[in-house]
UniProtKB/TrEMBL annotation:
It is found in: Cytoplasm. It comes from Fregata magnificens. Keywords: Amino-acid biosynthesis, Cytoplasm, FAD, Flavoprotein, FMN, Methionine biosynthesis, NADP, Oxidoreductase, Phosphoprotein, S-adenosyl-L-methionine. The gene is Mtrr. It holds the Pfam family Flavodoxin_1. The keyword Hydrolase does not apply. Its cofactor is FAD; FMN. GO terms for biological process: cobalamin metabolic process; folic acid metabolic process; homocysteine metabolic process; methionine biosynthetic process. Its main location: cytoplasm. This is Methionine synthase reductase. It comes from the Eukaryota. The keyword Flavoprotein applies.
Length: 697
């Protein structure tokens, strides 16, 4: 290729939690090995690029947040391109490729990327490379890795076509293009990528390490025939490995003294105003022998400016488990340094593109504060982190296994033993004891400790100055990879925090936490723009909320009861609630639902119990989706004839999808239409914001 050929492309990323940025950085690193210059920017930095005048190819990596929104960093960009006055040829000059990140557990999969992609097409932009949609439900890398592999050839084609337009010899261009396979247009980049097979086109020493087989596990192989986190079997154990390029270090940590104060937790949050509020009440809603333990907490927000509507969510700022922090400090050999203040700076001369001080790390705080409040030490390590850990591992066998886990050949092992097993850094350090990472490596690769989101389970109208929420204590049982059981980061912390409220009569040696003390937590609002009661109270609605999915509907019913008391002349539509749990006597969370039924706030209450045995001749339905099918005509009437609303809250995979299938079947039968037509009707209901979901995976 001609040496004077322009080989720059614009690389934009829009990230919420850092995933899209990390992938963009990987593309930037690989670009140099291909003789290309990636001009990388966050999509929010609109003063540093201009798509209206951009002549070079554009690569966009964009994630999705919430229920299908573009990330916060893309909001301004999306608003700009959504301008309805823009002509249809506004971006006719633009050639781009887009990689969207999402999670198919949620209804609007990769909607952030799809929104931008669709709008750029409407404004005349052209693909030089097929759009990739990566699914975090099965593993982003299953689409991301082959998409990046195919990107380079697609860019080469785009550059050649660019030269052709500029008047270069069309003969030379044609011969070059005819010799190159059009992999960019043949890759199947859907979430069903388990059958995707990509052969290496070339081996590049700068970004791929080719390693000959070293028979490290000769003795182990004779007794171990099954792979595990620490052990591989053929073909992986006998393969030459293609592993990622080593990410350049860019953080420098300096220990200082033990004098000073840590920053306030509010300084760690950029999403809005933070409120420190007392926990005034804690109730265990389930019996001790229930499979899951559900708690209800009440917060006092009377003296704050915090406001909410039923259906809103809010976030709790939580710390990592104190014992896990101490254990990590011990393994790192930093137990004596926990209370020392550290100064975190960008390393001079780093090769990392756009290296900057991580926003979630304070300029000055103690080491223990960083590990407790700033870094997600429970995060599943990315392959780039595993690649960096290879360099910190002295044992040859352990080093080889870490290389396998981050390699293309070990992709299925990574998914099975790291990703699907919820392995965290502590698990890795126990499994690979010769691995001794530096503190700067942890700060570079561990993501920000995210605040946890919960649905509000109360009404400010019904209980002024109070906010309630319900949650299950998440449990991670012990297993070969994880020798001790763990609780969820936030739910475990909250449960421990409110133990004195749950068991006030238990003696405690800690006098500071006597009956007179009140524990406080820091929260901030996360309003839900759609999951609210109908604006018109005469409109009927149905609620589906098994388990803790009932939480927002308690707020709905409290609010509706208060409105009925205050406005006796109003017309109120009928209300339905479908609730389910395992056992009627163990985890029927809100038996006071009968009160709403008796006072007329709730018109219909339908419950089911999936694990209770029945002596009835015809077994009762086990799950809410089964109960809904029994009321097919009523569902169709509320949704189609009376233009009512349908709300679902709870587990996505095992409940919400089943409910959606049931509604589609109901619409199909009651309308006398085929299933495809019924699915279109459901899509229209979603679009009209009359079929609403608040679900989690």
């Amino acid at each position: 290729m001609c040496c004077d050929l322009k080989r720059r492309f614009l690389l934009l990323y829009a990230t919420q939690k850092g995933q899209a940025k990390a992938i963009a950085e990987e593309i930037w690193q690989q670009a140099g090995a291909h003789g290309l210059e990636a001009d990388m920017h966050c999509i929010s930095e609109m003063d540093k690029y201009n798509l209206e005048t951009e002549k070079d190819p554009v690569v966009i990596v964009i994630s999705t947040t919430g229920t299908g929104d573009p990330p916060d960093t893309a909001r301004k960009f999306v608003k700009k391109i959504q301008d309805t006055t823009l002509p249809p040829d506004h971006f006719a000059h633009l050639q781009y490729g887009l990689l969207g990140l999402g999670d198919s557990e949620y209804t609007f999969f990769c909607n952030g990327g799809k929104t931008v992609d669709r709008r750029l097409q409407e404004l005349g932009a052209q693909h030089f490379y097929n759009t990739g949609l990566a699914d975090d439900c099965v593993g982003l890398e299953l689409v991301v890795d082959p998409w990046i592999d195919g990107l380079w050839l697609a860019l080469e084609e785009a550059f050649l076509l660019q030269k052709e337009k500029e008047g270069m010899s069309s003969d030379a261009v044609s011969s070059s293009l005819s010799a190159a396979p059009h992999v960019g247009h043949e890759l199947n980049l859907s979430s069903e990528v388990q059958n995707l097979k990509i052969e290496d086109e070339r081996v590049r020493s700068s970004d791929v390490l080719t390693q000959k087989l070293v028979d490290i596990h000769l003795v182990a192989l004779t007794r171990d025939t099954e792979p595990s986190l620490v052990h591989s079997v053929p073909p992986v154990s006998q393969s030459a490995l293609n592993i990622p390029a080593l990410p350049p270090e860019y953080i420098e940590v300096q220990f200082q003294d033990t004098h000073g104060e840590n920053p306030h937790l509010s300084s760690l949050i950029s999403e809005g105003t933070t409120f420190e509020v007392p926990v005034t009440k804690a109730v265990q809603l389930t019996r001790e022998d229930a499979i899951k333990t559900a708690l209800l907490l009440e917060l006092d927000i009377a003296d704050t400016g915090f406001d909410y509507q039923p259906g809103d969510a809010f976030c709790v700022i939580c710390p990592n488990n104190v014992n896990e922090v101490e254990e990590l400090l011990h393994i790192l050999g930093l137990s004596e340094k926990g209370e020392y203040f550290v100064c975190v700076k960008v390393k001079q001369g780093t090769k990392k593109k756009g290296a900057a001080h991580p926003q979630h790390i304070p300029e000055r705080s103690t080491l223990k504060f960083i590990l407790t409040w700033c870094l997600e030490i429970r995060a599943i390590p990315k392959k780039a982190f595993l690649r960096a850990l290879v360099e910190c591992t002295s044992d040859a066998g352990e080093k080889r296994r870490l290389q396998e886990l981050c390699s293309r050949q070990g992709a299925s092992d990574y998914t099975r033993f790291v990703r699907d097993s919820n392995v965290c850094l502590l698990d890795l350090l126990h499994a690979f004891p010769s691995c001794k990472p530096s503190l700067n490596l942890l700060i570079e690769h561990l993501p920000k400790l995210q605040a946890r989101s919960y649905s509000v389970s109360s009404s400010n109208l019904y209980q002024p100055g109070k906010l309630c929420f319900v949650f299950n204590i998440v449990e991670f049982p012990a297993c070969p990879i994880r020798p001790v059981s763990r609780k969820g980061v936030c739910t475990g912390w909250l449960a421990e925090l409110v133990a004195p409220l749950l068991h006030p009569n238990k003696n405690t040696l800690d006098t500071k936490r006597g009956s007179s003390s009140t524990e406080k937590i820091s929260i901030f609002a996360r309003p839900n723009n759609t999951f609210h009661l109908p604006a018109d109270p005469s409109v009927p609605f149905m609620m589906v909320g098994p388990g803790t999915g009932i939480s927002p509907f308690i707020g709905f019913l409290q609010h509706r009861q208060k409105l009925r008391e205050e406005h006796t002349d109003w017309e109120f539509g009928e209300t339905w609630l479908f609730f389910g749990c395992r056992h009627q006597d163990r985890d029927y969370l809100f038996k006071q639902l009968r009160c709403f039924l008796e006072n007329g706030t709730l018109t219909h209450l339908k419950v089911c119990f999936s694990r209770d045995s029945s002596a009835a001749e015809v077994a009762p339905p086990k799950y809410v989706q089964d109960v809904i099918r029994l009321y097919a005509k009523e569902v169709a009437r509320v949704l189609l004839k009376e233009r009512g609303y349908f709300y679902i809250c709870g587990d996505k995979k095992h409940m919400a999808d089943g409910v959606s299938d049931a509604v589609v079947d109901i619409l199909s039968v009651e309308m006398g239409a085929d299933k495809l037509e019924a699915m279109k009707i459901l899509a229209m209901l979603r679009e009209a914001k009359r079929y609403l979901q608040d679900v989690w995976s």
